[in-house]
Amino acid sequence: MTVQTRALARPPLSAGRWYYGWTLVLTLALTETISYGVLFYAVSVFIAPMQADLGWTRATISGGVSLSLIVAAIVGLGVGRWLDWQGARGVMTLGSLLAVIAVMAWSQVRDPQTYALIWLLMGLAKAMVFYDSAFWVLAQWFVRYRRRAITIMTFVAGFSFLIFSPLANALIQRFGWREALVLLGLLLACTTLPLHALLLRRRPEDLGLLPDGDVQPTSSSPSSPPEGLNFGAALRQLAYWALTAAFACGGVGLYTMVLYIVPHLIDEGYDSAFAALAAGLVGLLSLPGRLIFTPLGERAPSRVAALLFLSQAAGLLVLIFAQSQLGVLAFVALFSLGYGAVTPSRAALMAEYFGRRAYGTINGFSTVIITLVSAASVTAAALLNDQTGSFRAALWIMVGLSLLGAGLIGVAHWLRPRLTT
After folding, report:
1. What CATH number is given for 231-415 in this structure?
2. Measured between alpha carbons, how far apart are the two ends of the chain, in Å?
3. How do residues 71-114 score in pLDDT, each as one tens digit?
C-alpha cells in the first residue's frame, strides 16, 4: 500500500473524535457500489437471456436503458432543487424504494409496453440515487477534504462493475434471469434503502459540527464556509457554461467508447474475446485514475481536469492508428485514466467554483446538459458508422472534442468567480 493510499485510508479525526462526515463517505461508498452494480453494470448481462426467453429484439431490450438515461437527465434539475431544499435523505431513500420496485417489476415483465414503463421508473430512481446526489452530500460535509472524500467513495464504487457483472451472470446461470432480478432487488431493499433512510444527514451544522470535522475556525476553513452562488447567479457566470461545455465535450468520448469499443474492435479484425477483455480493462484501469488524479486535483484542479481530457484524446489517437493488440492496450491505459477521474473531477470543480449554497441545482442542470449531449452522441456515432462503414470518423470527432474540452477547462478557470465568506 502506497503512502498516498494509507493517507486516504485514515481520514483525519477531530479532537480525537470520529467525524460523522466520514461515516457518510463509507455509507455512500457502499450504497453507490450496489446501486450502480444492480441498476447499471448488471443490466447488460440480462439482455441475452431475456432475448432468448421473450423473443424480443435487442433494440427493444436496450431501448429501455436509453429511456431511463433520458428520463434521468430530464428530472435531474428537479432532483437537484429537492436536494438543496430538503437534503439527500428523502431523495435517496425514495430513489432506493423506486429502484427496488422497478427491479422487482422487471423480474415479472411480459410485454414491451410494461417494460418501457419499468425503465421510466428506473430512470427516476437513477436520478435520485446515483452520483449527483452522493456528491451533493459530500459537498455539504467537506471543504478542504472534499476531493479526498470523493476519491474514497468513487474508488470503492468503481468496483461495482467487477462485482456485479459476474454476480448477475452467476445468479442467472443458477436460478434464471427472473429469479436473479428478485435476488438483486432484495439486495437493494436490504442495503441501500435502510442505509439512506437511517444514516444520511443534511449538513454538519445540523449536528452542531463544522465541515471537515473542524472544532474551531482555522485559516483554511472559516467557521462559516463560503456558501457560494444561487442558481440564477451561477447561470450568469460564463465559467459555468465553459465548465459544462467542457465536460459535455469530454462526455461524448466517454459514453460513446464505453458502448462501442467492443463492436469497433471486432470490426477492426480483433477477436471477440480480446475485445471483451479490452472493455473490461477500461473499467479495471479506471480505478488508479480515480485514486491518483482526484487527490491531485486539490493542488491544481483545473490543470488536472484538462490533463484528463488530454489523456482521453491521446488514447483515442492511439486507437485510430493501432495495428496490434499492444496498441489497443496502450489506448486502454491512456483512456482509462480519464474515464475513472472525470466524473469526480466535475463534482469537485462545481463545488469549488460555485459553492454549496445551491450545489444540487447547479450541478443537476449541468448534468442534464451533459447527459443529453452524450445520449445524442451515442446515436450520432452509430449513424456515422452506418454511413461510412467505419467508426474511425467518429473517433476523430471525439479526439477533437476532447481537446476542445481541455481548452474550455482553461477558460472556465480564468473566468471562475471568487467566492467570499
Report:
1. 1.20.1250.20
2. 38
3. 988 898 889 889 988 999 999 999 999 999 999 999 999 999 99
